[in-house]
Amino acid sequence: MPKTTAEKLTPTRVKLSVDVTLDELEPYLKQAYKTIAEQVSIPGFRKGKVPAPIIDQRVGREAVIQEAVNASLDNFYQVALGESNERPMGRPTADVAAWPDAKDPKSTLSLVFEVEVRPEFTLPKYDGIKLTVDNAQIDADAVEAELTKLRERFGTLVTVDRPAKTGDFVELDLVATVDGEEVDQASGVSYEVGAGNLLEGTDEAVETLTAGESTTFTSQLLGGEHEGRDAEVALTLTAVKERELPEADDEFAQLASEFDTINELRESLKEQVGRAGVFAQGQQARDLFTDTLIEKAGIPVSEELVEEEVHRHLEGEGRLEDDEHRAEVRISSEKQIQLQLLLDAIVEAEEVTPTQNELSQYIFQSAQQYGMEPTEFLQAISQGNQMGVILGEVTRNKALALALAKATVVDQDGNAVDLSEFTAVDVEDEAEAEGAEDAPSEKPAKKAPAKKAAAKKADKPAATEEPALDDDEAAKKAARSAAAKKAAATRAAKKAAAEAAE
Questions:
Q1: How many beta carbons lie within 10 A of that of residue 408, not counting itself?
Q2: Distances in Å between the alpha carbon of 461 and those of 114, 151, 400, 466?
Q3: pLDDT, tens digit, for every residue of 279-288?
């Protein structure tokens, strides 16, 4: 076994020095001879059949050693990680500190690796930690706002002869020119004034125009070969329509819901608003919980990883020169990396393992978000080797729910806030899990509050293994299970790299 020594350069970076004897390098030397024999042409010998002494004579023993070292770097790096128990968080650099002497069988190869690693920190105690969140707002205005949203879904658009205003729906013809040359055009574009999802400046240009009127404005193009360039946009408004809402009466209640009266519908909406208020409290409690633990833990952050994430983010937005935005992204990236490290520590402390049902729910919900069928999404993540990323995110989400369930949450008035639905996780019955392979049909996992689920420990941390999903059948089960339960997978905080992650 190669001798490995580890030296902490910073709290997040380690140098691994590995001394390899020629005996330990021998398997790679044998392969190096075979590789070189396939590459060289030497009179009197077929390719692949050149003897080692001839290769030493014609190519040189040093070249063989170099080929062997290049081929062995990753394996010796993995050995060094195993010996040092370090967990890498970035790509390593490798250097040969000393080459072995081809003429001295007792000489050694000295390798040096440097890599960003998971820093050491103490996970603060969170059992019983007290968090204070805002009071849940359940008032008549909130209920009426929900009723208005429902009425808007059943509204009709009516053409009007007046200037456009925020909330109207308009039809537009657009022509963009750069340096006097037309680069793009679109006709009959339907747009809700104030939505902000067209070119910047569209809302200001549209407001006060009536059907048949035109104007021009300057805006930055968002796509195409001229993306990022300023263009002169000619806009013609061809129609203005306002949304006409149905009356909020019993007839509407029967049309839009399972209720017979508008009062029953309002009561149902009041319950929905209440659940939304609790969910908002849960989100606030989650953020307070993680922020508090991160501050107490004092988690070191790798500058290299932060800079990589910031560059990736700004490059994707085309804003590499925006120093003000860079500072904002740096702060969020640091926090995201700290959050991931914190949740990974909780995963280990709670010995968290996601159930098949939780993975299926996540896949189903993600497929919906991307407008894909579950089978398509599952195939895409499998081909992209992203199943480990999915597993990690689901595992961290569950760990956060388990930990948050152990906190004490109260509102501003000191009233206890019940977050059991917000922190609920799946637990599988052991007997069902053991007999799953022989069972003729799949039974759904049982939903349980996180405090009860926490008592059921897994034998191994979830991050060490990746459950198999049987392509189409697994995706179909995911769709059936998630659709039946109408359950949304709880997402953790943009992705380290992230999504983040949104």
A1: 12
A2: 27, 48, 15, 11
A3: 899 999 999 9
